[in-house]
Amino acid sequence: MLQEISRWSMGGLAALVLGGIAVVASADDDPPPIQVNPISAERGEFTDDVSITLEMKAEGEDGTQVMHLEDASNLVLAEVVVQPGAVFPWHTHPATTISIIDEGVLVYVTEECIERHYPAGTANVDSGEVHTAYNPSETEEMILLAAMMGAPSSGPLTVPVSEEESDELDAKCGIER
Fold first, then answer.
1. In terms of Cα–Cα distance, which of 129, 125, 88, 135 is closest to 111?
2. Coil, strand or helix at 169
3. What would the pLDDT profile of 60-82 be if each residue is shown by its tens digit?
């Protein structure tokens, strides 16, 4: 059975990236379904002018996405631990994110219902599109290391979609919570 992080916990998820606290804690001291542990307490700011261009031809999609960050000034690094069956709410990010799957498998689902499976040792680029993701394992946690480039100097790093949009996307893509 998949564990859900409430879409209304996304504010907590954003704060989580900054504060290293659990999104959801249970009464019996089980680990939270998804926990983000910042690698640094501060957002790193490049002292030089840094711009980054990434091109990505995503599996299952036509065409190539081009992501150009004129100002990649702020960098955020975090470890994300996802318990077995945990599902992220539908959301987006205000920064381009590159992740490495350190342990387990991440299933990333786009708003077009395209599923991409990333096993340990692979990497992915999140271009800022609306998406959800989950750990399909019933027994093993999934750990990823994320670098968010071009993050705002302050504020949330995760932006949830509305409850209505989330419900529509769940129904459209067959996401069970």
1. 129
2. helix
3. 778 888 877 777 778 999 999 99
